[in-house]
């Protein structure tokens, strides 16, 4: 695989209202297949390495930083940040670019967002590749943050994650306490909560990897937005997924790592089995983790994204 990144076309800050300016960068072939890249988090941002997923000759790549994430402004904003706003932003950007329909590529909560978007706006998505799909059910949230899920696989890391809060079996109370810490006026308290939040997530997405201190400035907004969504039950994302999954008409490839401890296969498989349709193809990547930094996941996503372009060109 070539390490040369797709050519840069242009960048814009898109005003979507609510005082939000979204960073949109375009790469690749201006006349290629338009593809919207949805980063995870929520609250992350698009990274240059993620451009390596795409063949620049095939795609016009649209790297959109969602509200509060990446280079979008104001950074870390949660006042007007929810599922419906993110969906509306996608449609605003599509309309401004005058793109009738596009492909979608995304991972983790970006996969969740893409899944919901394609279900609610089926005529706007021609095909999509999603990986590490997060199904935000009560079961999945309890697995991720509670004491009886991933905590049993990573007990020492979970002990560190929960060390800043008084023990409580109530997940809602725990998240509320962590939320207070992530907005603490004392910088040391705030940074400690950011570090433990991101370290726990990293332990599950790429086991054995230690969080560098240089990630803290970026991580503050990511942690705050992630917790904002978790605390508000992902703004009914799960219910919307269940009610509308059958409406997806785009060919949808979902790749889930066999050892994805953020979004475990058992939850994803059960959801797709119950609510999916013939357009949704769910595959388990042997030896794959959650993060694209894992070679097996990266390789499978690159292949799927390439196949998507090939099949569109054949039509």
From TrEMBL:
It catalyses: Release of N-terminal proline from a peptide. GO terms for biological process: proteolysis. Its main location: cytoplasm. It is found in: Cytoplasm. GO terms for molecular function: aminopeptidase activity. Residues 34-273 form the AB hydrolase-1 domain. Gene3D superfamilies: alpha/beta hydrolase. SUPFAM superfamilies: alpha/beta-Hydrolases. Its EC number is 3.4.11.5. The active site is at residues 108, 260, 290. It is an enzyme of class 3 (hydrolase). One of its GO terms (cellular component) is cytoplasm. Belongs to the peptidase S33 family. PANTHER family: PROLINE IMINOPEPTIDASE. This is Proline iminopeptidase.
